[in-house]
Design a protein that fits this description.
The protein is of the alpha/beta class and 286 residues long. 39% of the residues lie in helices and 19% in strands. A hairpin with a 5-residue loop joins β2 and β3.
């Protein structure tokens, strides 16, 4: 092998090592913490909250949320779950029925796939594990981007998950539920019959099943507007793709809230202090 070839191999090896190190940091997990006292006005709840990141997301997605809620004595992170592509779950920490406002950080070991369908299957395995191993029968969810798409598709399409776990409050941060439409399309009821997104059609069918199973979580759908209130995208997800959740919730018969934040990018939806404060109020009424 000539010198150019050797240098090329070495460079490639260095790049691979750096990428692996970067991924290890992404899935390292935020520090767990315990609260003995809570701030005034924070409602204590025995229902744990699962944090689900989106495509390519990991520890940084909710690190600020976890740290902020701990410092402000709102919630405590008690468990990290790593899920492998084959659905196997690795768990650090544990749930305690006597500790209120517990946070569970879910980390996909690899979530760089072309679609979110593989992560939907992995999330199904995580939710099943939480019920079977830790006896979780009530759950709140905070989900960013494809993490919310995965939650909706996992739960709405699974009679078992609907019957075993009662989903109480679900906060969606820039979550696309129908990718048929782009920024030039404004939401309207007529879009129900124009959708070409197979996953969205599954959600509509699953919404009726959710209603029949009396599993009707309160949905908070938060959207970002990259360049002001009237911008129709957060820079990654067009509003209409998230607003199609209105049709799903209507069929499910749940309580629905939708808020749009001006000058807020897709990334900032899980980083801005004002949004984190409102999300805490949504979950724990503080």
């Amino acid at each position: 092998m000539n010198k150019v070839g050797k240098y090329g191999v070495r460079l490639l090896a260095i790049v691979v090592v750096l990428l692996l190190c970067g991924q290890l940091i992404m899935i390292s997990g935020s520090r767990s913490n315990r609260l003995n006292h809570f701030a005034a006005g924070v409602q204590k709840s025995n229902t744990p909250t699962l944090l689900i990141s989106g495509w390519g997301g990991g520890t940084p997605t909710y690190h600020r949320l976890i740290t902020t809620y701990y410092q402000q004595k709102i919630a405590q992170k008690v468990m990290t779950i790593w899920v492998l592509p084959n659905g196997k779950c690795l768990v650090h920490g544990h749930l305690d029925a006597n500790r209120p406002n517990q946070l569970i950080q879910l980390l996909y070991v690899w979530n760089y796939t072309p679609t979110y369908n593989p992560q939907t299957k992995q999330l199904t395995a995580v939710l099943t594990m939480l019920h079977d191993r830790y006896h979780v029968d009530k759950l709140n969810v905070i989900a960013h981007s494809y993490g919310g798409s995965e939650w909706a598709n996992a739960v709405f399409c699974s009679p078992r998950l609907q019957k075993e776990i009662k989903y109480q409050k679900v906060v969606l941060l820039g979550v696309p539920v129908d990718e048929s439409f782009g920024t030039k399309t404004r939401f309207g009821l007529h879009l129900l019959h124009k959708s070409t997104d197979h996953n969205f059609k599954q959600l509509l069918r699953g919404a009726s099943l959710m209603q029949a199973n009396h599993n009707q979580p309160e949905i908070f759908n938060l959207l970002g507007s990259k360049e002001g209130k009237n911008d129709q995208t957060d820079g990654s997800v067009p509003h209409v793709q998230s607003q199609m959740m209105r049709l799903v919730v209507k069929k499910m018969g749940s309580t629905y809230h939708e808020r749009t934040y001006a000058n807020t990018t897709h990334f900032q939806l899980h980083q801005k202090k004002a949004i984190l404060k409102e999300v805490a109020a949504d979950i724990w009424d503080n």
